[in-house]
Structures are given as structure tokens and as C-alpha cells.
């Protein structure tokens, strides 16, 4: 599962302003491992997360590379996946 929190430093402490979750990858019943994750901010407005999904058990055919681009201002995101064979 992947969650992204937007935080701000307020009154000498970090506070969560918004939280984001992604239905394409946050499935409690799927047997998915996330590997080779990386995350960076682009133009102070987008968070880019990339990685690989490696399924196991009943999801063992579920293997793909993904890129998730989140616009932190409006909450919209684009989730792209490419099969790994």
C-alpha cells in the first residue's frame, strides 16, 4: 500500500494537511509486494512515485512497473503501469 501525506511545519511541529491514497495499488486483499520504490517532487506541485509490483499467491501473475504522478494541489493523479515479463 502507498499513502502520501502533505505536511506543513506549523507551531514548531509537522502537521498533516492532506492525505492521499490510490485504489489501483491499495487493495487489502491483493498479495502484492512493492519493490524498488523511489519518490521525488517536481515543480513543487507534483509527487512522482515509481516502483515495481511483484504479486504472489493468487496474484502471482501480477508483475508490473508503475509510475504514479500526484498533483498535490487538486488531488488528481495519473497511475500508469507497464507489464514485466
Sequence-ordered SSE layout with sheet pairings:
Blueprint: E1 3-10, E2 13-21, E3 32-42, E4 46-55, E5 63-71, E6 77-83
Antiparallel strand pairs: 1-2, 3-4, 4-5, 5-6
Summarize the structure.
By secondary structure, the chain is mainly β. 0% of the residues lie in helices and 64% in strands.
Share in helix: under 10%
Head-to-tail CA distance between termini? 22 Å
Strand content: over 45%
Order of helices and strands: EEEEEE
Description of the molecule:
There is one protein chain. The chain is mainly β and 85 residues long. It has one domain. Helices cover 0% and strands 64% of the residues. It is built from no helices and six strands. The chain has strands at 3-10, 13-21, 32-42, 46-55, 63-71, 77-83. The strands form two sheets. It has a four-stranded antiparallel β-sheet, with no helix packed on it. A two-stranded antiparallel sheet has the order 1-2. Strand 3 (32-42) and strand 4 (46-55) form a beta hairpin. The radius of gyration is 15 Å and the shape is elongated. It starts with a strand and ends with a strand. The mean pLDDT is 89.
Q: Features of this protein?
A:
single chain, 85 residues, mainly beta, four-stranded antiparallel sheet, two-stranded antiparallel ribbon, 6 strands
